[in-house]
Amino acid sequence: MSILTARAPPPSIFDRVRSIHWLLVLCLMAVAAIGCVLLYSAGGGNFQPWADKQIQRFAVAFALMMAAALTPLRVWFKLAYPIFFGSVGLLTLVEFFGRHGKGAVRWIDLGIISLQPSELVKVALVLALARYFQRLRFESVGKIWALFIPIAMTVVPAGLVLKQPDLGTAAILLAMAGLVLFMAGVQVWKFGVVIVAAAAAAPFAYSKLHDYQKERLLTFLDPERDPLGSGYHIIQSKIAFGSGGLFGKGFLEGTQIRLNFLPEFHTDFVLSVLAEEFGMMGGVVLLGLYLAILFVTLGIALRARTQFARLACVGMAATLFLHLTINMAMVMGALPVVGVPLPLVSFGGTAMFTLMIGFGIVLSAHIYRQERLGGKLLDDD
Amino acid sequence: MKIGRTRPSRRTRRTTGLEQAKKQAQNREAELDQKKVFTRRALVFGGIQVAAAGALAARMYQLQVVEAKDYAVQAEDNRVNTRLLIPPRGRLLDRNGLIMAGNREDYRVYVIAERTPNLKLTIDRLGELLDLAEDERARLVRDIRKRRRWVPFPVAVDLSWEKLARIEANIPDLPGVVVEKGLTRNYPAASSTAHVVGYVAPPTEDDQATDGDPLLSLPEFRLGKGGIERVLDKPLRGQSGYAQVEINAAGKVQRELSRREGTPGPDVSMTIDLELQRQAMGLLAQHRSGAVVLMDVHTGEVLVLASFPGFDSNAFVGGIGAELWRNLNGDITTPLINKCIQGTYNPGSTFKVMMSAAALQAGSITERTALSCGGVFTLGNAVLHCWKKGGHGSISVRDAIKASCDIFFYQVALRTGIDNLSELIRRLGGGVPSGINLPNEKPGIMPSAEWKRRTFPNDAKYHPGELAITGIGQGYVIATPLQLALMTARIVNGGFRVVPRIVKGPESVFAGTNLVKPNPKPPSLGFDQRHLALVASGMAAVVNEPGGTALRSRIDEPGLQIGGKTGTAQVRRITLAERAKGVIRNEDLPWEKRDNSLFIAYGPVSAPRFSCAVIVEHGGFGAEAAAPIAREVMLAAMHKYIPLSERKLPDPVRRSRAERVR
Questions:
Q1: Lesser CB count within 10 Å: N end or C end of chain A?
Q2: Across chain B, which distance is largest between two alpha carbons, in Å?
Q3: CA B486 to CA B300: how far, in whole Å?
Q4: pLDDT digits (tens, 9 = 90+) for B309-342
Q5: pTM above 0.90?
Q6: Does B455 touch chain A (CB under 8 A)?
Q7: Active site residue B364
């Protein structure tokens, strides 16, 4: 802490590296390491086909995070809108050029890697919202008109994602934006109004859902109605959890995984691998790590001097929080199967890159926590 | 856009110091407000996070601690599949260890329904390779769908090399098809032993409902359905074993976790002599239909139980085809009927032997009672004839047996009375089940006054005419070949109540079953041994003395002489063959109307060891068709089982008498 007393940004790269919040980095690495261990197990005790790729990706993601962390926060502030418009643009492109996967258009091929713009847009929206509220006078937050722009910024990408269709990501975008708005100071009753309105519109929305989405919803309510179809995931996942017990069956000893009873156990259902082989203890350790990340991030937000930094941190925390909560609840049969990956653990490239970049920005907010950004103060229209 | 800490803008510089100070204060206130709101709400958010994490941990606790046991069981159910192992079925051996029912290793094709995306298509392809008819394929699809999806269903057993090669070559196009080795029940002497040994066949739904053995749910399990296979089905099955295998989600076996081999069913020895049985079948094959029974008169062991024509019991093992079944069932010579125990015939003149024994015992005649035969016997309005025109003159019982005098026995029957005859002949084994351990034995009929009343309430009296012809084995009296052989055995063994046995051992199969156990000291039937010896000597005379009706079937080897009695029964009563067809009686089929040819025999005369009964359906005279068969079978049996040292010459007294007669 003592080195960070300087009010100006640390001049040298050395100082900046030294002032990185290493606890946060360590927690992120620990979670990613758990992910790699699980993917190694999911591969039947092999680095092929998942663990090795995940490790490579994490290496790249780690570099990206470090780069993002060492980038001055004001650069992120400047880039917030361009990044946002860029990713919304990509999201629109997906509509036309996207690759199909599992009944939905989600990927866009960029030659070297294929990108999932719906993942990018999560970080982009956080930045854009934070940027917006940094510039908005605090008195204006309570005014209705001040909410038009952030709502538009949220609804447009959410709508595009929903059209892919990706219900899970759309819901996460909405909830995350809601949390950011809440942290920015929007009155609580307004959320009440929106929630009531949403509840009223739910039957209509249900009728607009895809059959498979309806199916998932119904199956969630009663997994046994189709034990070999949609309910199969949930039932088998719960069996993996329950049979793992308190301490698990041991590394590489999970029968549900070995014998393929669990589908998609390297992506959305990777937590059941942990639950089966390492038991509730494994799950609690992972949950603890996530909680540590969230609390450290919240701590950084509380110490930041600008609304941009605070909201960016809180937005990232919200994104992580929503992902892990929805995913965990889903694989434990407490929420419908919506296709939300477990952050940093599930096999997947874009999600890991964007999340790590997002936490790079959080780290940057920590390094530059004394920095002030111009814009939203009274003397500064 | 302004970046940087407090770089003052041109506009701020223009404002007055006071205003500036005021604005800065307001700024700071707004900033503080903002920070305050954020901090408060950040705490709320932190609280939400803790609450959510707590909820997730609680859910973990619920699944992984509270409900863990249930899920552990479900995971095991997922993973472990217990498969019953069918134990090898116990073999059936003849008395000398020759295999009558064995197990042959073969190749079979299974279909596992859950491994094929399109069961019907797979069965169609397989059906082409195996030459299965359209309806058979449809039946297979139906049967397979009835079973559990992961249980391999046998489509064909005992594959020929050609078919095996065809399937192996096409296996990539046949998802869910597996070829495996298995054991198939095999009857090496099927055509000779089918009736006795029986057969195994796939269990029916009824069988599965009534039999609790889980083995029956396996489609390749076979159940004993006829003969000894049925009687000893439970012991022959053995104890099933099981294998626990680990399967993956696709149902594919990963590895075997544990295996407990079952206990094979025990090999069971039967009393049948396969060589003699085959010989008897071969001799019967000169005719269209008939039966031979040969038994040991002291132990009751049945060495030959031959019913011709036989059938190929191997055809039943895989499930018999409808057409073959129709053919077998519709055959006039009733191949599916075991005529030895299910064919009931008027015994004809062979019955005179039992009549003699009964009448002597009842005291209605003695050895010396001479009755006259004038060739014609008048009884009320009826006129009965002796087969010999002109008659036998005055004749006593021994000669009446030898010459088969009808009129002597009309009178014997009338003198003795139906109730005396009935009681005594039932004691010998007529009209009651012999007790042999084979399914569906017919008891035959030995009528009595009471029986007549019960059976013909409108004509309740036992008329003298009916009684008279009972004396020559016609009319109501019917018996199975086994009963004839048994009655003969009990007469020639000195009147002991032997019971026909078909299972020799091992001891373990007798436990808990109603199998006839060996009885070294059978109880006496209460007949005077001298009377029985007289009857036996009469039978010896039939074959060995001039004037005997079966002199041509005499055996000249020293010590192996046989005694016997011919029978020629009119087919007045419907034969089984006719009964099977029902309407055929009035059609002009000469074979149908010919007399049944019967012969009963025992030997050696000096020390009776075997008794034998032969019937050739519609074979004409007993002496012509049946007697030569009995002679051959008796001779072969005696050659095989009576060592030279035990071949006694005939009793000198009897020989001298025989010589005297000669």
A1: N
A2: 172
A3: 8
A4: 888 888 887 777 777 888 887 777 888 888 889 8
A5: no
A6: no
A7: no
